[in-house]
Design a protein that fits this description.
Rossmann fold; 2 domains; 6-stranded mixed beta sheet; 4-stranded antiparallel beta sheet; globular; binds adenosine-5'-triphosphate; binds magnesium ion
Length: about 290
């Protein structure tokens, strides 16, 4: 098992600081990297994979700078980029063979591994079909399969669930949980429920900074006492929406049931509610702005 340490990592594009002072250590388990669009997730992951040079800071794997490890580090890695390119006219099998050749995997090993992976991602029956006939979810699954070809000990998946339907999300979660046992899995998403049940650790980014790193239960504890439920007449909703962070809104007879994130009681009839991870996510993202 490996240990990857990021220390004071920064990346600036021209005058845009995309990643700022990120320090974190990853050991085995599933890490859910959460953050809104533009938070810096992809930039951080590309540096983590050694394909983007940091402006400053260091990345060490088992104490050694990854740049110094070169190919040895890449051998440990599997990566599914957010913009994942593939040849539409390739069949699933041909695509995986092609990727295995790019990764310089021995032929015999690759042949067996490809069969295992097609089974793992549930695409055995589609192995001879061209990728252009695949659904978005099938493409994501073939993407996960290619990232796993070399049986990586460090797996990096950038938005692996984008475009998946609910059934495919469940299937995906099961695949990832089975992989996280003895390797590092770093996966980004902006959908909290994708990582809620499978991530041992949550990393939360906002405006390039890592604003939370730790387990889900501690994240929930941060938002404790700041989640409220209240029933209000519909005309009052816009004003409350202006004043507070609303995590959910549900029509309830002639009124509306609101789930409000706030340090103070938002309405006289508001009742405290137990925080869910989604609430904690919103709470932490808005903490600086004083919810
Ligand atoms: N090559 C680049 N040149 C200039 N700016 C960039 C480049 N790559 C990223 N950025 C900027 O850096 C910031 C972080 O982008 P990044 O893609 O890392 O965010 P993200 O969290 O992955 O977002 P998303 O959820 O949309 O994928 C954004 O403001 C983006 O516009
Ligand atoms: Mg991204």
């Amino acid at each position: 098992m490996h240990r990857v340490e990021l220390a004071d990592l920064n990346k600036t594009f021209k005058n845009k600081a995309a990643v700022k002072d990120v320090t974190v250590c990853l050991e085995h388990g599933v890490y859910g990297l959460l953050g809104e669009n533009g938070a810096g997730k992809t930039t951080l992951m590309r540096m983590f994979c050694g394909i983007l040079e940091p402006t400053s800071g260091s990345i060490l794997c088992d104490g050694m700078p990854i740049r110094q490890m070169g190919g040895d580090y890449h051998m440990l890695l599997g990566y599914l980029p957010q913009e994942f390119g593939y040849y539409k006219d390739f069949t699933a099998l041909r695509f995986l063979n092609y990727m295995a050749a790019l990764k310089a995997l021995p032929e015999e090993y690759a042949r067996n591994r490809i069969e295992e992976l097609l089974e793992l991602v549930g695409l055995q029956a589609d192995r001879k079909n061209k990728l252009k006939t695949f659904s978005g979810g099938m493409i994501r699954r073939i993407g996960i399969a290619q990232a796993l070809l070399n049986d990586p000990e460090i797996l990096v998946l950038d938005e692996p669930t984008s475009g998946l339907d609910p059934g495919e999300r469940v299937r995906f979660r099961n695949i990832i949980s089975s992989l996280g046992k003895n390797r590092i899995v770093l996966l980004s998403t902006h959908i909290v429920s994708d990582v809620e049940y499978i991530a041992d650790n949550i990393l939360l980014m906002k405006d390039g900074r890592l604003i939370y790193a730790g387990d889900a239960s501690r994240m929930l504890a941060e938002a404790e006492g700041c989640v409220w439920k209240c029933l209000v007449p519909e005309p009052e909703v816009p004003a409350l929406e202006q004043q507070y962070m609303i995590s959910n809104l549900r029509p309830h007879a002639s009124q509306v049931e609101l789930r409000v994130i706030s340090r103070i009681k938002p309405a006289p009839n508001a009742e405290p509610a137990e925080a869910a991870l989604e609430d904690a996510y919103l709470y932490l993202l808005n903490k600086m702005a004083e919810v």
